[in-house]
Amino acid sequence: MGKINFNEMKGFICDMDGVIYHGNKILPGVVEFIDWLHENNKEYLFLTNSSNCTPRELNQKLARMGLDVPEEHFYTSALATAAFLKEQAPGCSVYAIGEAGLFNALYDAGITMNDVNPDYVVIGEGKTYSLDTLTKATNLVLKGAKLIGANSDLTGPIENGIAPACKALTAPIEMATGKQAYFCGKPNPLMMRTGLRILNCHSRDAVMVGDRMDTDVISGLESGMSTVLVLSGISTRETLATYAYRPTVVLDGVGDIVKEAKASL
């Protein structure tokens, strides 16, 4: 493991669930961490692979927990998906399965909805996923629509266990059509590069903070950033040993970033 001088770093890209909150509870040390970011004029972005919420909804979710984070500090896999499609095929049409966060991002990027002959089928998480929408999506892909997933998470944490996430929901369409989806969220380096561009920050001056080795740490590592694995979410010191790569540092939670920063002054 290496060491990071947090005082010298300009930008921080942080995962949310398991890092900032769990369910509807703020994790220990988060208030101090956000205060420290503000006090030291650090650039920061909260990055989430969830495609359900808009930045405004995330801003309000944190406000309900007592945190004031302006909406320009959020970047979601829905926004990454919309940005990818806008770059690849401006003005294209899609058949999308998902929630408001995905639909809003697509509309804002000038993309229209089409359930007859869309250019793309886009899958996010959400309550509109059913056998009917799955069948529709499968047949549209067979007719030539390209398959896109908002992110490649297999599962997500819920109060009493896990829920199947975007990659698991996309898998039946892949299996039925024999076509492979392209996933836009973490660990796709495109999402990280866009995050760094939003922060106006070079990768060597930025830190990726997350609780998952397979999305957060690897995406930071492959984008040339320093990486912090926090043990406040899904990972433990035991699961860490199962990967062939390492984070730069392992901390119990984001509050430890503030402690280390203050200790090295």
Q: Please state the overall shape, judged from the principal axes of the Cα atoms.
A: globular
Major sheet: arrangement of strands: 5-4-1-13-14-15
Given helix and strand content, the structural type is alpha/beta
Radius of gyration over C-alpha positions, nearest whole angstrom: 19 Å
Overall pLDDT metric? 95
Order of helices and strands: EEEHEHEHEHEEHEEEHEHEHEHEH
CATH class of the largest domain: Alpha Beta
Task: Provide an overview of this structure.
The protein has 265 residues and is of the alpha/beta class. It has two domains: 11-49 and 186-263, HAD superfamily/HAD-like (Rossmann fold); 88-183, HAD superfamily/HAD-like (Rossmann fold), CATH 3.40.50. The chain has helices spanning 30-39, 55-64, 77-88, 100-108, 131-142, 166-177, 189-199, 213-222, 237-240, 255-263, and strands spanning 11-14, 21-22, 25-26, 43-48, 74-76, 93-97, 112-113, 120-123, 146-149, 155-158, 161-164, 182-183, 206-210, 226-230, 249-251. The strands form four sheets. The chain has a six-stranded parallel β-sheet with strand order 5-4-1-13-14-15. A hairpin with a 2-residue loop joins strand 2 and strand 3 (25-26). Helix 3 runs parallel beside helix 4. The mean pLDDT is 95.
